[in-house]
Amino acid sequence: MKxxxxxxxxxxxxxxxxxxxxxxxxxxCRPLALAPCTSDVHTxxxxxxxxxxxxxxxxxxxxxxxxxxxEVKDFKKGDRVIVPAITPDWGEExxxxxxxxxxxxxxxxxxxxxxxxxxxxxxxxxNQADANLALLPEGMSLEAAVMIPDMLSTGFMGAENANIxxxxxxxxxxxxxxxxxxxxxxxxxxxxxxxAVGTRPKPIEVAKAxxxxxxxxxxxxxxxxxxxxxxxxxxxDSVIVSGGGxxxxxxxxxxxxxxxxxxxxxxxxxxxxxxxxxxxxxxGWGFGMAxxxxxxxxxxxxxxxxxxxxxVVTYGRMDPALMATQVYRGFEKIxxxxxxxxxxxxDVIKPVVICE
Length: 356
Ligand code: NDP
Ligand code: ZN
Description:
The chain has eleven helices and 16 strands. By secondary structure, the protein is α/β, with parallel strands linked by helices. The strands form three sheets. Strands 3, 5, 6, 7, 8, 15 and 16 form a seven-stranded mixed sheet that branches. β1 and β2 form a beta hairpin. α6 packs parallel to α7 (201-210). The longest helix is centred in the middle third of the chain and has 13 residues, at 148-160. Residues 37-39, 42, 150, 154, 173-179, 197-200, 203, 218, 223, 242-244, 248, 265-267, 298-299, 344 line the site of NADPH dihydro-nicotinamide-adenine-dinucleotide phosphate.
């Protein structure tokens, strides 16, 4: 089979591999729709998880089931499914502690395009199909549904982790697709005022549609100063970090009120260096005593999560298709879509590829 792969750090290309084998609890799927992720860009061009050789990329997909293992009960060949970006080993120790995405070790639930071949392939393997896959609801647009496996799951996690009081003030730093879903999540969680920090017109338009009340450009001056001024020096109850480099954490901590929460979605870093540190501002963090908590997480996966996110779309709470700014047709277009994600200029929020 054919797949679009990371050949080594900084290099991508098409490769041939054997079709993956199906274990008794697993499924093999063909892609129905695909999307590249900023995380693929960090992985290939920044070497953020270290080197990988000839690893097929991609973790955002809708699929058509091609084969199921002997123990799989809920799916059969031909089913159209939502494939979560994160596919935990359900029943494993970290899952029993309440952290399924961290199964087998930090970020261990992230298997596609990390520990095994990803979904940018003619066939891909899904572990524990009954626990991980969800049926794609009839009639849901593919452009909307392909945002569910990672963008909705991660962006909403940012809001879920942010401890947002009803009517509370939230700042969302970064309004790519993850931050846009963070805005939507903050609105669904009952936020009052929502600051969206970004610069490009198209994401700003979608940020407003998803519930942002105030737009701040980090290029028009210091973000913290602008938001403190707008809140009479009070700051915000919750900050959702979805863009920028390591220094964004300084902004986030300085923006939060004492007792506020900083919820990080960002995937930080270049290369694998144990001695890299992320900055915490000493005074902004109350010399270590301001009850400003930093919470982070990896996108939640699994069937129940996918079904709930699908309901957000089915029952009209959100239209994720607003983020599908470029729609390609044909599996082989994933190469163009990834390059567009890498360069991300103009009105690009998220390119998507419809495979059939
Ligand atoms: P994008 O690159 O599409 O968006 C980044 C946003 O950050 C843009 O709106 C950009 O604004 C903004 N930005 C850049 N610099 C600053 C700054 N100094 N202050 C405020 N905003 C800034 O990213 P995605 O939405 O695709 O992803 C966001 C992050 O989430 C990435 O690090 C990604 O790898 C990570 N991620 C994490 C996951 C997880 O499980 N935790 C899962 C998926 C993704 P502008 O365009 O106007 O310059
Ligand atoms: Zn992703």
